[in-house]
Amino acid sequence: MRRNNCQLILMLSLLLAFPCGVSAANQPPPEGGVLPNIELPVPEAPYHRQYLGLDQKSVFSIPDIKAEVVIIEIFSMY
């Protein structure tokens, strides 16, 4: 019985040490799925902030861009 408890504790420790959410974050969203919330730094140049329709915040996300359509191109380098 004691050995089973040790195995159970070891398995739970490994599950908590390596959550599956970390590996899922490295996967692209499924076709037709929703992009995760990505925060980007606000451009320093006033012209670029005005072009994107952003306020004087330090970061912004894609829905903050004031446009009818936003095209995102994702490159996979590896």
Number of strands: 2
Terminal-residue CA separation: 47 Å
Strand order of the largest sheet: 1-2
Strand pairing plus helix content: what structural class? mainly alpha
Q: What profile does the largest beta sheet have?
A: 2 strands, antiparallel
Strand content bin: 5-15%
Number of H/I helices: 3
Mean pLDDT: 74
Order of helices and strands: HHEHE
- What percent of the residues sit in helical stretches (DSSP H or I)? 25-40%
| Uncertain ranges | 20-24
**Can you tell me the number of structural domains?**
1
Shape: elongated
The Cα radius of gyration reads 21 Å
Write structural notes for this entry.
With 78 residues, this protein is mainly alpha-helical. It has one domain. Helix content is 37%, strand content 8%. It is built from three helices and two strands, in the order ααβαβ. The protein has a two-stranded antiparallel sheet. The longest helix is centred in the first third of the chain and has 16 residues. About 6% of the residues have low confidence.
